Structure formats: structure tokens, C-alpha cells
């Protein structure tokens, strides 16, 4: 599969080894073209204009919602367009949890959360007097033994926030099993799953997972920045309050008050990122046209090759498409800078997961994260770069 040719950035930089897909993925030509088409040919506002180009914009925007819904096995009315995973989780925290949780209630999170699925809960906990508990790590996996869960989950646990795929360790959490287990102890727990690192790498059917909310970003699945999704179960969305009040989310307004529009429109106050939503719809088409079988096969081949080639060159941790490298004697920022000199893009730092790094006993790490266009040639460049780092920095014991 010649996937690189579908991405215009590789025409400009044919030798680029882009291995920072956990941060954001590159964009295929068809997504860029589709967005360009909106901005060039029918860049009117949606849901308001009674004229051709506005109607076209509305149709394309709503058709993107239908594609996203189909992509995750949901109904279009359960898909809320947001600005990204962070905005989606904040909508759950401010729109659902703020209204439904009270002083003394508990929220269960995991020790591998991205700040975007931790800080909104910490903020809410501070405001409302809630307690946050952490599902612990066991190596790079979560400890979900009955004993641990029995100690953490009780009738006060009202909410669970959990990442599906760790953005540092690549761990694919068995969210369905975990949800089943926690809901068995307390069926009233409302679960929000952070799917930011999952949606580009595996088929997701939200209803099978048993979650109440599912959040993800367009830009990590070959779509544009500035667009994301919150899926919610119908009953949960009915209990959720909008956070953006104003134009676009009302049915009727008088001087005395207002009546909200139906779901999902009441959650999309103000002009949404129209071209970006349309671009996300095209990203869904891109993934579906490649097909999960080929996508997963390509990614598995690439990470297996990396696992084989790394040998003793660096300590590598992680599952699947995301790995962190720990190199004795070299700071991750130095590693990333040297890799940049050979055209390899990786991430250095805490990857918005400081508590997880503290748990792992690391100040920072170098992260390699793969996408469907990565292949053995990228791994070879990475390995060449790591050898260069070793030559400069890593001292023999
Ligand atoms: C697991 C996880 N959750 C949440 C986010 C936040 O996504 P966004 O910045 O698109 O809101 C990220 C982004 O790195 C992530 O990896």
C-alpha cells in the first residue's frame, strides 16, 4: 500500500520520518481538498441561510455527523461536534457531572490519564468537594483485579473517567471489561472514555463498550484541528446541560427566556468549525476506504519491525503503536533534537501525563507514535538517529 503518496507533506519532505502521531496525524490530500472545497465554493454559515450555498454547507456538515455516527456505531443525534477531546471531556464535567454529583461523591480515574481527562475532574472536585481515586498501574497495564476494584469502587463512586489507549504507553485498556466490572459493583456509575488515541487505530463501536460518554479529536485521525466529538447515550445527553448558550442552540427566545433546541444542536452554540467538521467526515471516509484490516496490518508490521530493530540501543516501553524510549545519559529533549537532524520527528517531554511519568519514575520521555503511513524506512531512520544519539551521549558503564 503506497500510503505516503496520499499525504502532500511527503511531496515537500520526501524523507520525513514523522513519528509524532500521538500528538497529531498528518492530513491526506482528500481531507485538505474537501475543506478547500467548503472554503472556496460554499463557505456560508449553516442551519440559517435559506439560499443554495448555505443549504449545501448544512447538508455537508450534517452528512459529516452521519459519517462519524456510523464510524463509531452510534446514532447521528448522539454525536456532538466539539473542538476536540479536551472540550468534549470538559462538556461532560461541566454539563453532566457538575449538575449530577454532590459533595462527598467519588470519581474514579486511572493512573495513566492524559491531563485532559484528569484536570477537568480535579477542577470539579475542588469546586464541589468530590474525591478522586486512582485505578493503579501494574507495569504498563491497569490493575483491574477484583480486590483492587472492591477497594476503590463503592456506592459513592458516581463517575469513572478512563483512557482507552494510553498516549504514553500505548496500553490498550480492556474498557469493556473494566466498565462491566465497575458497573457490577455500582450500576449507577457514569463512565466517560477518552478515545483520543484509539479511534485512528482500531474499530470502535461505542455501544459495545458499555460507556456513557466517548470523546475524541479529529486531528488525531487524519482530520483537521479544531474539531472533535462527544458521543453520549441518549439518556445521559438528556441529563446534560449545554455550556455554550447563545445563537444556534435555541428553539425560541423571548425577553422572558428561551427554549433550547433539540439534542445535539443545543450543545453546539455559536458558529461551529464548519469546514473542519466536513473535513472530519472526509477523514472517516479515508479510514474506511483504507479499511481496518490493512491499517492494522500496516501498523503491526511497523511496530514489530521497530521492536526487532531496537535491540540494546535503547530501553523501550509500550504496547502497539506507541512506545517510549529511555536512553541512559541522554535527556529526551537532546534525543529529539538529534533525531530531528536526521529528519525524524518524535515527541520529548511528559506528553501531558505528568502524574504517569511520576509513577514511572521519569522526569520526561521520548515518545515514538506510529500511524498508517509509517513503514520500515521510518524505523530505519529512527534507528540510525538513535545510534547517533548513543555516539554523542550515552556513556558506557
Ligand atoms: C489520551 C489523550 N487524551 C486527550 C488528549 C487531548 O486531545 P486534544 O488536545 O485534541 O483535545 C490527547 C492529546 O494528546 C490524548 O492523547
Explain the layout of strands and helices:
Layout lengths: L8 H4 L4 E2 L10 H13 L10 H20 L7 E4 L2 H16 L5 E5 L8 H10 L2 E5 L1 E2 L2 E2 L3 H7 L4 E7 L11 H11 L4 E5 L11 H4 L3 E5 L10 E5 L1 H5 L11 E4 L4 E3 L13 H17 L1 H19 L4 E3 L4 E5 L5 H10 L2 E2 L1 E3 L4 H7 L4 E5 L6 H17 L5
Parallel strand pairs: 1-15, 3-4, 3-7, 7-8, 8-9
Antiparallel strand pairs: 2-10, 5-6, 9-10, 11-12, 13-14, 14-17, 16-17
The structure holds pyridoxal-5'-phosphate.
The site of pyridoxal-5'-phosphate (PLP) has 14 residues, from helix 4.
What labels would you give this structure?
397 residues; alpha/beta; Aspartate Aminotransferase, domain 1; Aspartate Aminotransferase, domain 2; 17% strand; cysteine desulfurase; pyridoxal phosphate binding; EC 2.8.1.7; lyase activity
Notes on the structure:
The protein is 40% helix and 17% strand. The chain is α/β, with parallel strands linked by helices. The chain folds into 2 domains: 4-27 and 291-392, Alpha-Beta Complex (Aspartate Aminotransferase, domain 1), CATH 3.90.1150.10; 42-287, Aspartate Aminotransferase, domain 2 (3-Layer(aba) Sandwich). It has a 7-stranded mixed beta sheet with strand order 2-10-9-8-7-3-4, with helices on both faces. A 4-stranded antiparallel beta sheet has the order 13-14-17-16, with helices on one face. It binds pyridoxal-5'-phosphate. Residues 22, 84-86, 114, 116-117, 163, 167, 194, 196-197, 217, 352 line the site of pyridoxal-5'-phosphate.
